Structures are given as C-alpha cells and as structure tokens.
C-alpha cells in the first residue's frame, strides 16, 4: 500500500446526499454504528439541504412515536397465530392455496387506514 492509498483509507469517506438520506431511518432508530453516525452528522453539519430534510424526518418520527399504540384484539391475534402455525406445518404450497381461498376481513383495514391517515396528517402538518 503506498502513501496515497493509506491517506485515502484514513480519510473519512464523504457521504453523498443520497447515501446520507438513506441512513436517516437507521439514524433515527439509533441503529447506526458510531462511525457511520458520525459520517452522517458531519454531512448534515455541512449540508443545509440534508440538514433540513433530517429535521423534517426526525420531527415526524418523534411525533409518530408519541401516537398511542393499540393492541390487536386477542381473538384476532390468536387467529393470526393459528394460521401462521398451520402454514408452517403445511409448507409453501399450502400457503399459496390459502391465499387464494381466504379473503381478509374488512375490519383489518380499519386500523391500517387510520394509521395511514394519521401518518399523512403528521407529514402534511410538519412545519
Ligand atoms: Zn447533503
């Protein structure tokens, strides 16, 4: 390894805007390794555009975390688990057959729609 290559290796890699934004999720969840988080932060320090994007993203995540969580009704949870177990037992072929036969009950869509509406509202009301 010559001197140039060594310098290249020791230099902190500069993240592109795109790479930085792709890491927002992991940064918000505090799942980035320390050195990677440092790279993202240093890009944010030098880039107003990404900094602004991060502010929007992290404030949205924060608000979503404050939204009250709802548990699935116990009857639904146990039905889902029963099906999961059955599918494991009968394998993939059976799984495809079951998808063709079963239709999702409409009730399942309600909490999903509410979650989507709350999410959309939060995103749109972000400053
Ligand atoms: Zn940037």
UniProtKB/TrEMBL annotation:
Keywords: Membrane, Transmembrane, Transmembrane helix. Residues 18-51 form the Putative zinc-finger domain. Pfam families: zf-HC2 (PF13490). The keyword Transmembrane applies. InterPro entries: Anti_sigma_zinc_sf (IPR041916), Znf_put (IPR027383). The chain crosses the membrane at residues 104-124. The keyword Membrane applies. This is Transmembrane transcriptional regulator. The lineage of its organism: Bacteria, Pseudomonadati, Myxococcota, Myxococcia, Myxococcales.
